[in-house]
Every structure is written in C-alpha cells, then in structure tokens.
Input
Amino acid sequence: MSTGTTQPIDYGNAPVVEVAISIQFDPPKGLNIAHLGAYWNTVRDIYPRVESAHPIPISHELFGIPAPFSFVMDTTSPECRLQMASADDEWMCQVQRDRIVINWRKRNADYPRYEQTSERFRSALSGWVNFLRQNFEATTCNARSWEVVYINRVEDAAWTTSNDWPKIVPGLFATGFEGIPNASLTSLNSQWIWESQSPRVRLYVEQKPFRRTPQGASSAFLNFIARGPLGQAPQGIDIYDESVWEIISPAIGSGRDMIVNTFHRLISDQARAIWRHHAH
Output
C-alpha cells in the first residue's frame, strides 16, 4: 500500500509501545519443554530473564479467498512458551514448538526503529535453526506464515472521551457518532480488515477500549496486525534453507510497510501534529 508519496514516513513521537515479528512453522517431531529450556541456555547472555507462559494458539489462516475466510485454532497446541527478556526488559524472544517471536516493549527508551527489530529477529531465527540442526535429525522444517504487530497507546492528550475518536482516526470513524438521548458513548472495541493481493498481506486494525491508570490518566490502543503466507501453499518454506532470510525479510517488510502507510493515512492532521510527523 502506498501513501501516494515516495518520501519516508517519520514520526518524532510515535505512540508505538510494542512491536513484534514472528513466524509460525511445523513443530519438529519430539521437541518438548526440556528442549526449550536447553535453547534458553544458548541465548541467556542476551536474554537473561525467563518466564513460562501459555502458548500462542496454532492458527491456520487462509489467504486469497473471499471473506469470510477460515481461521482455525488447533487445540493440540504445546503447553509451554518461553518468554526470554533482556536485562532492561525492552527486548523479548519467545519460543514455543511452532513459533518464534521477537518483541520490543517500550520501557524507558523510544522505539529503535524497524531495522533493529528486524535484525534481532534474523539473529534469533538463525540461532533457533542452528539449535534445531544440532538437536534433531530432521533436515527440513516448514514455515507457513509470518506476522508483524504494532501496538499504539493513544494517551488522553489526544482525546477526552470515546466521542473524540473520529477526530483522531477519521479514516476509521469519518462520520462521528450519533448521540443517544440520556446516554454517552463510554468505550469502543472495533476491528477492520484489509487485504493486499500483491504482496499478499492481510491487515487487521483494532481499536481497543481505554484504560485508566491509578494516577487518573487514560489511554486507548490502536493496534495493527499484519499477516501473510510464506512460500507456496501448502508446503510453505524450509527454515533450514540457507537463503530463507531472502524470502522472509521482504515478506515481513511488506507487512511493516502496510502498517506504517495505513496508520499515516487513517489518522488526522491533529494526531500527526501530536505525534510529530516529520514532513520531508
């Protein structure tokens, strides 16, 4: 998706508070929680903090068919996901039998840009593949899909009530909200879906209800989730292949580009000023 300009889109105070890149692959036969723990030993210098969590459910999302499309949750998901965090808690590498994820979370520093996140993911994927090669006899491991997530926290400097959202994101709420006598709109929880055919990207845009902090400040969330296939269905791509990054990098890059361009198109000039859009 293009914004109609060849100039880069840059925000000096973007509301992004978390970014994640992941791929989903066929679980290597025999891999279990003990192997996940052994993998952590190979990266604990980078990610010294570790916790276990319920796994992200396996999903089978079909691309290239008219909506409604199929989205199936596999109930045989493994029972553990390792969340391995950096000492400053800003970076996290997550692994489970069928997925690897790199997250950046806003703590003290501003988002270090997509290129650093992408490089972290490339490094994590390379280490994970090397671990699989050394510990399992299988010579192939097929990846089916990729995902890029941007979570934006919209602080109450940009809005007062849910009725203000058309002023922030007119691309989603162009006409505003009709008043209902003796009632006020207190919350929103909405989802929009776009799909690009070339490159193949399905983009989910979600507006989540606001949260109020103990200090009285309010914030809401505007989330962008881009997903797409890897290789040709149904086989996907082999992550053991030496040239796998040449396939994965452009794919996840197309998802990131669609997120950034769509965000820029949807928000208002007022929001662009608040988040310090830099015109080039």
About this structure: The chain has five helices and twelve strands. Confidence is low (pLDDT under 50) at residues 1-6. The CA atoms of residues 147 and 227 lie 4 Å apart.
